[in-house]
Amino acid sequence: MAYWLFKTEPETFSIDDLKSASQQRTFWEGIRNYQARNFLRDRVQIGDQVFIYHSSCKIPAIVGIAVVVKAAETDPHQFDMNSDYYDAKATHEAPRWVGVTIQYQQHLTPITLAEIKANNAITELALKKANRLSIMPVTDSEWQLLIASR
DNA sequence: GCCAACGTTGGC
DNA sequence: GCCAACGTTGGC
């Protein structure tokens, strides 16, 4: 059982969209970064908990928690020429990209990026650095610290 | 396999 | 809208 942070742009897909989705679930599609892909493919497991983080918006922040309900599956959008996520080099024989399915758990009073940056006890979280990873691990202790700050 | 050029992300 | 950081591409 591990902890993660998934970034999303709320204008594209917000935690409210997740909450109002069918079964409050969604397939986390469109990850097109190898490091993030490797986490999804190799390490994210059913039952893992996920901070949902809103980026590229007014107040970047962790806004809630979801849980992984399905491990990695091939992301079908890589084969869809009409999709933004189309990848001409991906084939059905050798798919490049995967996604997992997550389910809404709860909203949190937003834990803002500014707050996280100001918290000296948080040192490992990739958000702390100038890191653009869209899927990043959260250590057990930092997960607990962040939760406890609420 | 190196690395310069280029593109993208994302906070501000 | 700017720009720093960093990932990707492609020529050699």
UniProtKB/TrEMBL annotation:
Protein origin, superkingdom: Bacteria
Residue ranges annotated for the EVE domain, each copy included: 2-147
Pfam families: EVE
Record Gene3D superfamilies: ph1033 like domains (3.10.590.10)
Record-given protein name: EVE domain-containing protein
